[in-house]
Amino acid sequence: MPSQEKVWTVIDIIKWGTGYLSEKGFDEARLTVELLLSETLGLKRFDLYVKHDQPLRREDLDKFKVLLKRRLSHEPVQYIIGKTNFYSIDLKIDSRALIPRPETEVLAETVIEHCRTYLSQREIVRVIDVGTGSGCLAIAIARFVKNSSVTAVDRSDFALDLARENAAATGTTGRIEFVRADFLELGKNVFNESFDILISNPPYIARSELETLSEDIRQFEPVEALSDGRDGMTFFRKISESAHVFLRDGGWVFVETGFGQAQKVRAIFADHGGTELLVKKDLSNIERIVRARFFSKGSA
Questions:
Q1: Highest-pLDDT range among 1-15, 220-234, 286-300
Q2: Is pLDDT above 80 for 94?
Q3: What is the pLDDT of residues 23-76, one digit of tens each?
Q4: Which fold would CATH assign to domain 10-73?
Q5: If you ran DSSP here, which 8-state letter would residue 73 be given?
Q6: Buried b / exposed e across 21-45, counting CB within 10 Å, b at 16+?
Q7: Residue extent(s) of CATH 1.10.8 domains in the chain
Q8: Is there a contact between 72 and 29 (Cβ–Cβ < 8 Å)?
């Protein structure tokens, strides 16, 4: 750890911290140090290099050490600094919900583009976000689809509180209704309206795979938002079975899937009448997003 006797500048800390975390086996060491130091000093990352020769005060070093120790315990950086960026939106994030990831941005982008291309002439596009977590998907859609009305559902009161805080901070509260409900237990549409789109990034990690996750995820992120406790397919089955209940005739489903799951999910949707099926890859060239359209029998 940096000693109190030496005068440490911003660039000294960046260089030392990058090497230290790299030696300890942490990925993205330089980015991590930049984020922790930005939080310590109340600066943007760019400004760290503008003020690269600025010396750190004793209290700055003490604060940085505390944050660095948390990272050394494998606590995710986003939880340490209490925020993350999703689809160009700054969100509060903590252990009440999963950390939004780049692959989920692909899901958001896919739905937003679909709404703008095919549903822009509708007065209102009604979207239900199943398992909203931090609210990242609901907020992105509410912000970038101007004719959207989003119902964000989660079974966790803690997650919903976080999502409401994020909606308030991003000015999207008026477009989102937050509802506490366990989607798996809903046998009928309790929302008094049919939706044009169902979107979900559900718990899709199989119980047998939980131990293979990184320590960062396994120890700190809410397990109920990671895994269905079974084979990882529970929510996909439920969504496909109840699509006709929640969606208007010809409504759409967009879901994020885990590694190696996309074709299985596509088959599940097809078995339950899903048409216009599409599988989309993420930025790592992994099949990640599955789209399906559902019609009532005899109306397709």
A1: 220-234
A2: yes
A3: 999 999 999 999 999 999 999 999 999 999 999 999 999 999 999 999 999 999
A4: Helicase, Ruva Protein; domain 3 (1.10.8)
A5: T
A6: beeeebeebeebbbbbbbbbbebee
A7: 10-73
A8: no
